[in-house]
Amino acid sequence: MNLLLDTHLLLWWLGGSKRMGPQARELISDPGNTIFVSSVSLWEIWLKVSLGKLRISPSFDAALANEGFEVLPLTASHARRVSELPWLHRDPFDRMLVAQAAQERVTLLSTDDVLAGYGKMVRVV
To answer: What pLDDT was estimated at residue 111?
Structure first.
């Protein structure tokens, strides 16, 4: 299964957070699954770090590299796809993750129940 992690799950996974549920942990650790991390999530993380809204470990980059996740770049077709989404969610980062999942035909793994309204491309765990 091809899974795109939302930003919270990425941070929780890398930080070993107990907030991550067992279903998410199982899906991410399954070697049969390909795990994608969006450049959009990385943008969101570094933006929040620069604003003082988020603190991350100095070893964040190394931890991310060690996981072997695939990085999904933001493309023009992803940006275009956002315009086709219904306005179920106002967060621009989450909307872009949904658009990327739809465009790339991967499943967005999230903890946000509102995103489930976008359909089968989102799996809430």
So the answer is: 95
